[in-house]
Amino acid sequence: MALLNEDLTGLAKSSLFPLGSFIPIWAAVDQKDHQPLLLLLEECVAATTPELQSASLVYPIITNKGCLADGKTGNSRFLPRYHPSAILLYLQSFKFALGEEVYIHCKLVAWDPEVFDIEKKACHYIKETGEWELLDDPSQSDLCKCCDSSCKPRLKRGVDSEPQGLVQNSVLGPLTIVENSETRIPSEFVKYPTVEQGW
Asked: Quick check: helix, strand or coil at residue 36?
């Protein structure tokens, strides 16, 4: 995982972000000799500590097996992929631990790019339509309907033997969100960058 600069052409030169500005977060999996892999962010939280403890104060960003919860309260969203093995989270900075060091903790899952289900997905909230959308195939956005409740599969026999994909926990930070005089930008004025090149 890495912080990118504003135009997504390189690594961020600063880890200081004004409240309401956007934090481009890039994550990728090294394909090596594997079959093609799809990278998903299953869960992400912001915390004030580099290690998560039970007493850690956390701010939920991605919950419910790939639902970008922060996109419903703010203007965060996933940007279109340039490659299945990488994902770009365009996270709007939030009012959590202002002025303190913040760490982004994520559970990354590398998965079969042909198979989506309610536990293997990347969903973001589209304010204009008021609906959740599946990043990789909007025609399958019904998989995101559980984002407002609970994305748990129906129990079936042999569930423990089902493949879980390659899982890794990753931590990004520290970064600092600072108060500024501007308020959060209304969603209709947000311009999301386009991804023109890979990393």
From this structure: coil
